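REVIEWER CHECKLIST
Item 1: Sequence provided? yes
Item 2: Single chain? yes
Item 3: Sequence as submitted:
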Amino acid sequence: MKFISRIKNGLLIALIVCSTQLNAEEQHVNSLVENIEIHFPDRLNQAQQFMEQALDIAPNHAQVNYYCGVIYGIRASEGIMKAMRFAGKSRRCLENAVTLEPRNLTYRLALFNYYLSAPSIVGGGEEAAKQEMRNIQELDEVQGAVAHLRIVREFDTERYSEELHKMAEQYPQATNIQLRLGLNLQEHGEYELAHESFVRITSQGFEHDDTYFNALYQIGRNAVFSHQRVSQGIEAMERYITDYNSELEIPDLPWAYARMAQLQSLENNADLVTHYKNLALENSANNDRELHDLMAQL
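Item 4: Structure as written out by the authors:
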């Protein structure tokens, strides 16, 4: 009986030790993931170091594989030599992430972005993108429609406008599709219709997301291009500047100042032109040649 009791006690101790080690490892990985998120994307070198440490410890951790795919994907875009080194790693990590968590839409979209932008020689291309689009459609119909539009724009450009109008009619409440429609109309000089699209987006009540802010910005930008509805453009750009959120994927604040300077120029408000022009130049990067050239014209 003592022998059996010793065996049981030994097994219990082993289980406790194993559980403690697993908990410590999990905490370490979680800490590394937190550090990735703190440093990504502004300090990419540090984010990459934390990601590689986490990947060594937990190669089957879905979120770590996701960050691996995204970070190596950025590295692959930095030049031909880096593309050869990092593209395959990026794809494998993203494919691992969706294998581990097949219903995670963020991971699916990241893999789709890889397939759409990478050439077939490194596992990208139209067919791979279409297959991933179908996977996305199963999770989110609207995101699947956006993925479809991006494939058409990339591989069948002549059909893009037709497909975009079709998707906009099919999904009138999908603000991301309506924004694409407005931009397409603007690109083709249909400024009044573009304005209507952007205004529809801002009236739908989603006042804190990327699409809402992008629509505000485009109302102002559209007025610059068309020389029409300038007062509405100024009002939209004032709201954009006042509520600007640097955490969203929207045009940088110096560009909003620059557009406001252009709008005030159309209204012959010389003092306000100077005010916003100075704000644009003071807050922009020195290497933003496009913005500096634009302000030099005022």
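Item 5: Key structural point noted by reviewer: The CA atoms of residues 223 and 229 lie 6 Å apart.
Item 6: Recommendation: ____
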